[in-house]
Amino acid sequence: MRSQAALPRFGSLLCLLFLPSVLSSSSRRQWILQRIPVVLPQQTEAGPTPHFVNEARLDVASPCDPECHKKAPRPSYWDLRSFLAYETLHSNGQLTETAVGIYGYSPYASTSPAHSSGSSVKAKGSHVRRKRQIFGHDGRFSIAGQNFLLKYPFSVAVKLSTGCSGTLVGERHVLTAAHCVHDGKNYVKGAQRLRVDPSFQWIRAKRTHVPKGWIKGNANEIGMDYDYALLELKKPHKRRHMKLGVSPPAQRLPGRRVHFSGFDNDRPGQLVYRFCQAGEETSDLLYQHCDAQPGASGSGVYARMWDGRRRRWERKVIGVFSGHQWVEKKGTSQEFNVAVRITPLKYAQICYWIKGNFVDCREG
């Protein structure tokens, strides 16, 4: 429990969250809409019978640091089609596999600092050292009381029955991390009867979509880039949801700041909010030192910027909190918490899963 001395700080935080901004229009960081490519399902076939083998891991650790990811070769068009193909787990236990086509996108249209012509490099020290994912002073805030829990943006955070967190991104849809339902080889125990708690009552998931990039890869290499999943609920949750947004470069975020709320397992029964500055980034991952504990994985990482068209401030989900990375180089350990960025292609895919058509997914 927070001390009384922490209460004024929490009060100031709420003022920052909910009071109108007084920034001049010239200093506002704005959402910049861009044309989104099209990711369309092409063929769906029955998949193998799933095996719900292991318990869900509430954290994902990788020894591959930003430089490791940046040295990975740029994926080709055919690679991307393979990574964005997806599996759908239905509540009756049926599994389907869907191939996709990609239109209006060229992976060679621009040079990304996240890639070079070098081959993929694995960081040394591949053993995983479990540590608290707290960096210095614990800057997390426990959100208590229904008045705050039911108030946007805290109200979009949900708890999954597998122990992870998620974010409401549609009337029936929850965005979370892929590792919360699939360990890279099999669906985890509880994935078939997955439930979501958005408002003090559990709602069953009807369908769960997981990209093949996660299933084909692993947390040390390409898989972490695709550590996201979308759940479709059996009935509407009747709460306000948060819009998706394409992840902008970190330097375009106001104060380079990102936010997310989740259900950290060291504070059972509490929603925990945090914010921090974004650090390094690759084309698919965003590194930061936001304090977090297992259970927060799957939380939607969001930013708040000015929407020039609607003339209002808008929060949008720009990533999914994945887990912890620890790597040792030349005797010095480096640690990061990492989020999967919503790229234009991922936006196109997730938006299609939500909307069921590409026409409503052309601007992000």
TrEMBL record:
It comes from the Eukaryota. One of its GO terms (biological process) is proteolysis. Residues 1-24 form the signal peptide. InterPro entries: Glutamyl_endopeptidase, Peptidase_S1_PA, Peptidase_S1_PA_chymotrypsin, Trypsin_dom, TRYPSIN_HIS. GO terms for cellular component: extracellular space. SUPFAM superfamilies: Trypsin-like serine proteases (SSF50494). One of its GO terms (molecular function) is serine-type endopeptidase activity. Coiled coil: none annotated. This is Serine protease 23. It comes from Cyprinodon variegatus.
